[in-house]
Fold:
Amino acid sequence: MIKVILCDDHALIRRGIRDTLADVPDIDVVGEAGDYGELRSLLRTQACDVLVLDINLPGRSGLDVLHVLKDEGSPVKVLVVSMYPEDQYAIRALKAGAYGYVNKGGDPAQLVAAVRMVSQGRKYVTADMAQMLVESLTTPTTEAAHERLSDRELQTLVMIASGKRLSDIAEELTLSPKTVSVYRARVLEKLGLSNNSELTVYAIRNGLV
Structure:
């Protein structure tokens, strides 16, 4: 039996994933968490084989969680399930220690296949992502400016470009408005931009939103 823990801040999303996996005889969802704090408490008391993890969590992001688990040498294998496009976050997630990446809008059967494969210690990537990885290895490319952003800086960029105010971002990420302002300033500097309007245009042109 494959023991699975779900970590997503939206209860309806967790329910949807739970319902999808509930019909599978060899998979058992043994716990749920809405943020990093709940997840840490759960992992202390509940053993699991696969952690199904969202990228966009309040406080520590899913990418932060990946880094922490990797640094601690955790045996838990992580499958990232996110609404963000594969070409923007999948490679980051794999580099941070994830075993696979699935889009939330994908086929439920794909999620089941991914959980099974990840539980065996194998990497799971979609056909589109496999093609993207091959192209990145065989085609010389110039690194886009946003690829030099930290995980949190990229998250801030995407949220600003999605129309969220700094106060909204601070509340959602459980950070102070001052901290979010620092991230914004770093993004503007690294991308050579001047304001939120230019950030939004950049994000749209580069398929970040």
